[in-house]
Amino acid sequence: MGTKKKIGLGVASAALGLALVGGGTWAAFNDIETTHATYAAGELDLNAQDTSARVSLSNLKPGDKFKKEFTFKNDGTLAIKEVLMKMGYKNFVDGKAKNGGKNSAEDFLKQFKVSVLTVGLEGGNGYPKNIILDSANLYDLYNASAKEDKAAYDKVKKHIAPGFLHENGKINVATIKGKTAPEYDGVPKDPYDFDKVEMVIEFVNDKATDSEGRMLQNKYQGDSVELDFSFEATQWNGLTIDGKKHADENGYVKENEKAHSEDK
User: Fold this and answer.
1) Cα 184 to chain center, whole Å?
2) CA 135, CA 200: separation in Å to the nearest integer?
3) Is 94 exposed, middle or buried (CB count within 10 Å of its CB: 0-12, 13-18, 19+)?
4) What is the pTM of this model?
C-alpha cells in the first residue's frame, strides 16, 4: 500500500505541473523592445577645380615651359589617403602629315617632360615637397599610369620620390609622411585641409641635327595633342570602431574624417 500511494502522488504532481505550464492564465512579467541599428557608409568625395584636367600642347617651340596647377579639397565625410593621377591623351594632329610626315602621338609625347611636380603648395605640413626628383618623360608617364606598362613603371620610378608612385603606375599627388603634422597627410576632412599641386611641363630643346644641319625636331612642327589628367581618391584602411573613443553621441564616427584612421 505504501508503494502504491507514493506512485499515485507522483503522478498527481506531474499532472499538476503540466497544468501550470500549459495553462494560459499564468505568465511572468515581460517586456519586448525592438532596437533598430542604422549603418550608413561615409562619403568619399574629392573636389578638384580640375578633377579631369585638359592641357593642350600646341604652337609650342623647344625650350618652352608652362605651368599647370590643381587644387584639391575634401567635400566628403571620409578622409582621403591618396589622390592618384593618371595621364591620357587624345586628338593628336600630325602637322607634317600633308607633306608625308609620319609622326605619332607617342613620338610627340617623348619631346615633353615634367620637370616640376610639387605637392603641398598651401604651405602646411613641412611642404612644399617635390615629387619629381628628375625630369620624367610624358610618354613614360602615360604608359605607366594608363597602360600599367612594367617597363615604363621602372623608368618612371627612378624619377619619383619614394612613396609617391603607386604600384599601378599612377602618381600620388596628395601629401604623405608629413614630419611636422602627419594629421594633414592625404586630404583629411578634419582638420580642414586642401592640397595644391603644381606641374611644369617642358618642351625638350634637343640640339641634335641631321647630316645637312637641320634640327631633328623640325618634324614636329605643327603637331598638337591634348593631355588628360584624371584623379582618383582612395580611402584609408579600415578601423576597428570603439564607440566611446571614435564616435559621437549620435554614433557618427568622427575618427574617419582624420588621416591615419586605421588599425596599426
Assistant:
1) 15
2) 10
3) buried
4) 0.77
From the CB of residue 36, how many other CB atoms can be counted at a distance below 10 Å?
A: 4
Per the listing, cell 598651401 goes with 122
Please compute the mean of the pLDDT values over residues 72-98 and round it to a whole number: 85
Strand partners, 230: 52, 86
Name the grid cell of 132: 619629381
pLDDT of residue 14: 35
| CA gap 119, 84 in Å, rounded | 12
Phi and psi at 65, nearest 5°, equal -130, 145
C-alpha–C-alpha distance, residues 146 and 199, integer Å: 18
Question: Which pLDDT tens digit goes with each residue over 198-245?
Answer: 889 899 999 999 999 998 898 888 888 888 888 888 888 888 888 788
The CA distance from 239 to 206, in Å, is 52
User: What φ, ψ does residue 202 adopt, rounded to 5°?
Assistant: -125, 135
Nearest CA among 136, 132, 125, 134 for reference residue 176: 125
Q: What is the C-alpha to C-alpha distance for residues 234 and 228, in angstroms, rounded to an integer?
A: 20
Q: Which helix (H) or strand (E) holds 17?
A: helix 2-22
Asked if 95 and 200 touch (Cβ cutoff 8 Å), the reply is no
Q: What is the DSSP letter of 21?
A: H
Element (H, E) at 130: strand 129-130
Q: Which residues pair with 84 in a beta bridge?
A: 172, 232
Phi and psi at residue 200, to the nearest 5°? -120, 120
142 neighbors 169 (Cβ within 8 angstroms): no
How many Cα atoms are found within 13 Å in the side-chain-facing hemisphere of 104?
4
How many angstroms separate the CA atoms of 50 and 231, rounded? Answer: 9
Radius of gyration over every alpha carbon of the chain, rounded to an integer in angstroms? 33
**Most confident stretch, 99-108, 112-121, 156-165:** 156-165
Instruction: Give percent of the chain with pLDDT exceeding 90.
Output: 22
